[in-house]
Amino acid sequence: AIHRWLGSEFAVRKFHMGKPQPSFLTLVVRGILKIGRKLGLYPYQRAEVSYTKDPEAIIFPGYPWLFREVCTARDRYLTSKRARRLSAKGEVAILDRFPLDEVKFMDGPQASRMTSGITRNWLLSSLMNLEESFYRKIQPPDLLIVLRVPPDIAVQRKRDELEKTVRPRSTEIWEVDWSRTSAHVIDASAPLEAVLTQVKALIWENI
Hey, is 66 helix, strand or coil? Predict the structure, then answer.
């Protein structure tokens, strides 16, 4: 809706940082991993990604998962770089699910959290550092808007996802002290039109 609204006056691009467009390198790595999986060299993933900070409750998903996470981190960095380049040319870039230090369960470094309960080796440490390096290079947004909704409502709305994944992620965002950040927090439990009105007002003030 925001993209359509701004598009009537400006050149606008939108990007989904949660699912960034895969680069050529990412496609190559995914292809190699897929071949290895079909040959039975390893499973797709040894365990589900756990949305918890308790090391004892986390099982390392395996190196194929970790390689994909590093590629995703690189793709997110490249997406942010492209958005910055367009912005410098006068276009408006809208980025959904922007990686933030305050949010640990989504769209940020995962290797450190998901390997906290196992012994580190040189490969693990190297991949973890590489993943984190891409996120460190992502510049903060010019305007950060957080749509905050009570976890119970998030679970009700996300019927196409499992509660065990929706609830911890929405709870994390709900519990962050956003007053310590530059974020503009909007009550997303309100009706859609009310939320859109607030978002539009914030964007118009800062454009």
Answer: helix
Locus of tokens 């990412």? 26
Token pair in block for residue 149: 């909704």
Bridge partners for 146 per DSSP: 185
Name the pTM for this structure.
Answer: 0.90
Q: CB atoms < 10 A from the CB of 131, how many?
A: 22
169-205 pLDDT per residue, tens: 999 999 999 999 999 999 999 999 999 999 999 999 9
For 3, 6, 13, 69, 188, the CA distances from 203, given in Å and listed in that order, are: 11, 9, 15, 32, 16
Long-range contacts of 72-76 (CB under 8 A, 24+ apart): 72/20, 72/26, 73/109, 73/130, 73/131, 73/132, 73/134, 73/135, 74/23, 74/25, 74/26, 74/134, 75/20, 75/21, 75/22, 75/23, 75/26, 76/17, 76/20, 76/107, 76/134, 76/135, 76/138
Residue type, 186: I
